[in-house]
Amino acid sequence: MGGAYEDVYSAWKQDPEAFWARAAEGIEWFEPPQVTFDPDEGPYGRWFAGGRTNTCHNCVDRHIAAGRGGETAVIYDSPMTGQTARFTYDDVLVEVSAIAAVLRNHGVGRGDRVIIYMPMIPEAVFSMLACARLGAVHSVVFGGFAAHELATRINDSGAKVVIGASCGLEPGRIVPYKPLLDQAIDMARVKPDYCLVLQREQYHAPLRYEHGDVDLAQAIEVEKVKGLTIPPVSVEATDPLYILYTSGTTGEPKGVVRDNGGHMVALNWTMQNIYGMKPGEVFWAASDIGWVVGHSYIVYGPLLAGNATVIFEGKPVGTPDAGTFWRVVNDHDVKVLFTAPTAFRAIRRDDAEGEHIARYDLSGLRALFLAGERADPETLKWAERMLKIPVIDHWWQTETGWAIAANPAGLGLLPVKHGSPTKPMPGYALDVLDDAGHPVPRGTLGNIVAKLPLPPGCLVTFWNADERFRHSCLDEFPGYYKTADAGIIDEDGYVFVMARTDDIINCAGHRLSTGAMEEVCAMHPDVAECAVIGIADELKGQVPCGFLVLKKNVHRDHAQISREIVQLVRDEIGPVAAFKMVMIVDRLPKTRSGKILRGTMQKIADGMPWKMPATIDDPAILDEITAVLRVHGQIVSGEKVA
Ligand code: COA
Ligand code: AMP
Question: Is the pLDDT of residue 348 over 70?
Answer without folding.
Answer: yes
